[in-house]
Amino acid sequence: MTETVDILPFVLYGLVVAAVIGVTLAASWFIGDRSRHAGARDIPFESGVVPQGEAEDMRFSIEFYLIAMFFVIFDLETIFLIAWAVAFFEVGWRGYAGATVFIVILLVALVYEFRTGALEWGVKSRFARPPGYARQRQGEEAVGA
To answer: By the 8 A CB rule, do 102 and 80 touch?
Structure first.
């Protein structure tokens, strides 16, 4: 008998929640506007900016995605370094060495991104051919020309 008394409040709570959801949905159906799809309701709302053209016509530059990926990478770096700084005294020299290796790996990645031109905005130098790429040997056609 005590088991049914213990579960009774949960059953009542569930029934009250279901009733409130049902009443809310029914009230919104009767009170709401009858024209479900008309006028501005079919236009996506983008922070008050009226959309121009189709989504397929919009071309974003790859720089937007590169910057977003770099942000995520270095944001995670910050999270890991803050966690290491909080536990600085508990992790000791082994933690210090691990954080140093982590920072060095990320610095190598940052130097690589800089050298390949991934951090440049505008014309990408990483697509330029290296010097001497199209040199011709005697009697051969130019490579990549």
So the answer is: yes
> Which residue type sits at 124?
K
For helices 88-116 and 62-86, the axis angle rounded to 10 degrees is 160
Architecture of domain 2-122 in CATH? Up-down Bundle (1.20)
User: What pLDDT does residue 64 have?
Assistant: 77
Average pLDDT taken over every residue of the chain:
77
Residues 6+ apart with CB under 8 A from 95: 84, 87, 88
pLDDT for 72 equals: 86
Q: For the segment 134-145, what is each residue's pLDDT rounded down to a tens digit?
A: 555 555 555 554
Sole residue written with tokens 């922070």: 47
